[in-house]
Write a structure and sequence with these properties.
Layout: E1 2-9, H1 13-24, E2 30-34, E3 54-55, E4 63-64, H2 71-76, H3 79-88, E5 93-95, E6 100-103, H4 108-122, E7 125-128, E8 132-138, E9 141-146, E10 150-158, H5 173-179, E11 189-191, E12 195-197, H6 199-202, E13 209-217, E14 229-235, E15 239-241, H7 243-248, E16 257-261, H8 268-281, H9 287-290, H10 297-306, H11 322-330, E17 332-339, E18 347-349, E19 369-371, E20 379-380, H12 385-405
Parallel strand pairs: 1-2, 1-10, 2-7, 10-19
Antiparallel strand pairs: 3-6, 4-20, 5-6, 8-9, 9-10, 11-18, 12-15, 12-17, 13-14, 13-16, 14-15, 16-17
Length: 406
């Protein structure tokens, strides 16, 4: 049985970061195991293939957990630490107009290549195509078995990823490994994912993309803790997508209602006054034309339908419907019937509770075991936050392993 100081299970961003940080501290008797045929498969697709690695506003307020906070990990290895690390690997990164940091190449695969090249020169042992089937602790050593080999080590890092985007190899098998050491796993749900909606609420809107403000009401009508988010909303044949919806999806549950404000830069009084003035000036104008140059044409037709107004009704007859039209534009209600599932999600919500890990992400159940990245019960908003967590958690675990080895 081959023996190492540390075994890392998972060659995604958290696992690769952990391995490189150990190598940089002259700990090279490390084995990195990845079940895919190459490292960083999911990393190469992040940020719509452009590699959004972090955000200008990295703070715990952009992360969600039912069992703890990202504060300690982000404080130990934050945005500036990550950008400095990536620059030292040979990459150039810059901020876009919305606080997101991308490689100058705008290719996520080039970020993966930075890690692959560095690992190839590091002295770290990398084995791809090896799926871990079991892991246990016998005395002071961890024993890890794959489909063809067995290894042992003093430290073990589980960086296996969650259940989101299984076509990249994220099958959720890491949760079972963690449970084998006595850990619990909170309920899992897809996040940063398209939402499915009742057909009647999206009929006639397929393909429409608008800059909107969105909010959530749950089945009991109570507002969510973060009710207002601004960004793109894209209507699909099954529901709603877009940046604002992806960010909101972390909070949405089946049966909730999403309220969409199609004109977030204008208050209701201003919109109602404009429509009334327009109707008085052009009393013979068709109802559909009343909303032209106010909202997208398809949105206008749906607003009229929602308010029981025919497209050919005349503006002069709409005096009593202006308030209802304005309310529909400022708070169009879409009932959510589910999500597009883990297959189409970017990240997993839930995981090993943070209260079962210390501030270095070492297990409180098994000394020397670290649980990092998406396996832990923490997920972030859209915009580079989840990659930052993956990199930060891997770096923090590496620092703790080195500290114990000294």
């Amino acid at each position: 049985m081959e023996k190492y100081s540390t075994i890392i299970v998972g060659g995604g961003p958290a696992g690769m970061m952990c391995a490189l940080c150990l190598a940089q501290k002259n700990i090279r008797d490390v084995l990195l195991l990845e079940k895919n045929d190459r490292l960083g498969k999911k990393l190469s697709a992040t940020g719509n293939g452009q590699g959004n690695v972090t955000n200008a506003d990295v703070s715990a307020s952009h992360y969600f957990s039912s069992s703890g906070s990202a504060d300690a990990v982000l404080a130990a290895f934050g945005k500036e630490d990550l950008l400095r690390f990536l620059k030292d690997l040979g990459g150039l990164f810059s901020e876009d107009g919305e606080g997101r940091f991308y490689p100058a190449s705008r290719q996520a695969s080039s970020v993966t290549d930075l890690f692959r090249f560095a690992l190839a020169e590091s002295g770290i042992s990398v084995r791809t195509g090896e799926k871990v089937t079991s892991a246990k602790k016998e005395g002071e050593l961890f024993e890890v078995s794959t489909e063809g080999n067995s290894y042992c080590s003093r430290s073990l890092v589980l960086a296996c990823g969650g259940k989101a985007s299984p076509h990249f190899g994220s099958d959720g098998s890491g949760y079972a490994l963690a449970e084998g050491f006595g850990h619990s796993v909170t309920p899992l749900a897809p996040s940063l994912v398209r939402l499915r909606a009742e057909k009647e609420h999206i009929r006639g809107l397929k393909g429409v993309r608008c800059d909107c403000r969105v909010c959530i009401s749950n089945k009991r009508g109570a507002s969510s803790a973060r009710p207002l988010l601004r960004g793109d909303v894209l209507f699909t044949d099954t529901g709603i997508s877009g940046d604002a919806v992806f960010r909101l999806s972390a909070f949405v549950r089946e049966g909730d209602t999403v309220g969409i404000d199609f004109l977030p830069d204008f208050d209701g009084r201003e919109i109602a006054a404009l429509l009334r003035e327009k109707a008085e000036r052009y009393p013979a104008m068709r109802a559909e034309d009343l909303l032209r140059c106010v909202v997208h044409g398809a949105v206008g037709r749906v607003m009229l339908r929602r308010c029981g107004v025919g497209p050919d009704e005349r503006a002069a007859s709409l005096a009593k419907k202006i308030s209802a039209l304005t309310s529909a534009i400022k708070g169009y209600a879409v009932k959510i019937v589910g999500t597009e599932g883990f297959a189409n999600a970017q990240v997993t919500k839930g995981g090993v509770p943070l209260v079962e890990l210390d501030e270095s992400l070492m297990s409180r159940k098994a000394d020397g075991l670290y649980i990092v990245g998406e396996l832990a019960d923490i997920d972030g908003e859209c915009g580079g936050y989840n990659l930052q967590w993956a990199f930060s958690s891997g770096a923090v675990a590496a620092a703790a392993i080195r500290g114990r080895a000294m």
